[in-house]
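PROTEIN DESIGN WORKSHEET
SECTION A - STRUCTURE
LENGTH: 587
TOKENS:
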């Protein structure tokens, strides 16, 4: 389509338009003349400030006209790209020609910038979650006209509600009171979901959630469907279009985890086929769990050696898996695992909630919740400071409550319990203040949730124990002994030589282990099974002593014991405690 010349960009002197081309008036000793710069007329339509949550970049939307008056397509270039014109042929084609001359590019760039006074200006956010804009807290989500939020295509199903449907709060209350699956599954997921919009302020309180929610179960248990239901508080999701997957690279997942601030995401389908793929997906799981469990982004440098902004995960994540990834004791401690057994979901109830989710009712619940948070806790700086302070003290109190229960566990589990309890407390308070629950009923539900959470924590603590290096060593050791791959000689045996693969001696009470040989045998077995035995041989005696598995009566982890014709330094491993560990594993 051609435009009338009155619609052409308005270039200031010394630039002018002649025959649909851009010229510049040049003065010389011999008088003035018109220098042709290019055979097209570029101009700035809008200037967009792109805020990705770590950095702000200026991006220009350019329009233009060819010499024949037809419109060039609108394109986007960054401020750094504008003056190079490396984008010209790729985006506008080879018939848009810059003239020859050392100053031509600079002159055209200057002419383009001179059209900026007529350009629209706006900010585009490429991140979700809480942002203070013009002194007011806003919860950024795609789908709302202002502020404008745009996420990558892979995250395109995230979308906020424009308004809250009248059904929203009754549906949320019904989901709480009449869950479509056991409370042990639904209630922690609800708590995790409504904890997530608090991340920004928990970070300010120095107690940001540092764990992932592991939803595990056999194929067909509807793990992905359930995860999609809870992600539907933040967008339009089904089991087949969850935002992230274990088929993505770890780096891309962690990059998107920074963008998804204060919202829930899901890394779907830890389901390796074969040992090689299991090693690959386990490494991905390890990276993801570490990233969410530590909230520390990778430090990187630009080509000029200046530091790039650090981008740690800012939201919360559900991992779905057919079985827990082998990520060791430390990795397992950064997970809260919930098992979804076969046929425990009421499919009729689930389909009702899925229909509500498809209509945007769950998104409306989250809109109402974030509006309530803003009105109650974030209306002014004084209330905001008090909110952060209360979150900090509440976290500490809930953690200490759990510690007083004296549940033997990894040090991270009391914190996970405290975070989930905060999420449920805030959800119940919201429903109570919106007159969906009485104060008495809210207190009953919270008491029941805390009791359930403590029981689940006890179970998790027992499960996490299985990932301790000392206990892994014991289980693998027994496997080696029972299969004949490792040999123990009777302490009172009348022999003058040690057989091949001998790792020590034994009697009724102890395994007397040669530390290096036993460690080497266990490590080789782990390698053969595609696993990694993470503890060094020098650290093994200490780990066994900490678990009370070896005799340290004299304050030493190894003892000098006389066998045959010599004296040996050995680990004195209690046989009865080894048997107890094996029996617990078999239960």
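SECTION B - SEQUENCE
RESIDUE ASSIGNMENT:
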């Amino acid at each position: 389509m051609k435009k009338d010349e009155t619609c052409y960009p308005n270039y200031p002197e010394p630039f002018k338009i002649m025959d649909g081309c851009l010229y510049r008036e040049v003065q010389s000793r011999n008088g003035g003349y018109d220098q042709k710069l290019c055979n097209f007329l570029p101009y700035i339509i809008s200037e967009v400030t792109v805020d990705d949550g770590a950095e702000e970049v200026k991006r220009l939307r350019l329009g233009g006209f060819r010499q024949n008056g037809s419109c060039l397509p609108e394109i986007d270039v960054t401020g750094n790209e504008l003056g190079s014109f490396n984008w010209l042929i790729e985006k506008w084609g080879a018939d848009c020609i810059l003239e020859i001359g050392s100053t031509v590019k600079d002159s055209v760039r200057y002419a383009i910038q001179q059209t900026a006074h007529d350009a629209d200006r706006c900010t585009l956010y490429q991140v979700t979650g809480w942002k203070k804009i013009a002194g007011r807290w806003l919860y950024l989500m795609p789908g709302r006209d202002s502020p404008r939020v745009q996420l990558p295509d892979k995250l395109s199903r995230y979308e906020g509600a424009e308004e809250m449907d009248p059904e929203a709060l009754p549906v949320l209350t019904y989901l709480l009171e009449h869950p479509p699956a056991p409370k042990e599954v639904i209630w922690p997921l609800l708590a995790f979901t409504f904890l997530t919009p608090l991340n920004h302020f928990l970070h300010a309180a120095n107690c940001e959630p540092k764990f992932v929610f592991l939803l595990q179960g056999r194929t067909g248990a509807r793990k992905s469907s359930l995860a999609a239901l809870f992600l539907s508080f933040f967008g339009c999701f089904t089991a087949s279009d969850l935002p992230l997957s274990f088929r993505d690279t770890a780096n891309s997942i962690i990059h998107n985890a920074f963008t998804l601030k204060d919202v829930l995401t899901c890394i779907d389908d830890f389901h390796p086929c074969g040992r090689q793929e299991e090693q690959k997906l386990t490494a991905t799981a390890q990276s993801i769990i570490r990233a969410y469990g530590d909230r520390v982004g990778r430090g990187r440098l630009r080509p000029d050696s200046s530091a790039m902004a650090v981008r740690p995960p800012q939201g919360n994540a559900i991992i779905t898996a057919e079985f827990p990834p082998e990520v060791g004791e430390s990795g397992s401690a950064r997970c809260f695992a919930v098992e979804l057994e076969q046929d425990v979901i009421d499919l009729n109830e689930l389909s009702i909630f899925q229909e509500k989710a498809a209509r945007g009712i769950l998104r409306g619940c989250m809109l109402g919740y974030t509006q309530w948070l803003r009105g109650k806790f974030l209306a002014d700086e004084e209330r905001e400071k008090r909110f952060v302070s209360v979150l900090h003290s509440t976290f500490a109190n809930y953690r200490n409550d759990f510690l007083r229960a004296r549940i033997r566990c990894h040090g991270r589990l009391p914190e996970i319990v405290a975070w989930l309890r905060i999420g449920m407390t805030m959800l119940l308070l919201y429903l109570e203040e919106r007159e969906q629950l009485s104060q008495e009923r809210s207190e009953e539900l919270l008491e029941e949730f805390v009791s359930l959470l403590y029981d689940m924590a006890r179970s998790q603590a027992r499960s996490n124990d299985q990932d301790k290096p000392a206990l892994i060593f014991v289980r693998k050791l027994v496997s080696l002994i029972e299969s004949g791959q490792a040999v123990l000689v009777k302490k009172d045996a009348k022999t003058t030589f040690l057989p091949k693969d001998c790792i020590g001696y034994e009697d009724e009470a102890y395994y007397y282990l040669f530390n290096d040989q036993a460690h080497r045998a266990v490590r080789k077995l782990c390698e053969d099974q595609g696993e990694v035995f993470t503890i060094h041989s020098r650290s093994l005696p200490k780990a066994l002593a900490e678990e009370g598995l070896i005799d340290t009566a004299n304050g030493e982890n190894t003892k000098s014991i006389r066998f045959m014709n010599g004296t040996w330094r050995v680990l004195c491993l209690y046989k009865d405690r080894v048997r107890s560990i094996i029996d617990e594993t078999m239960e």
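SECTION C - NOTES
DSSP finds 19 helices and 20 strands in the chain.
The two ends are 76 Å apart (CA to CA).
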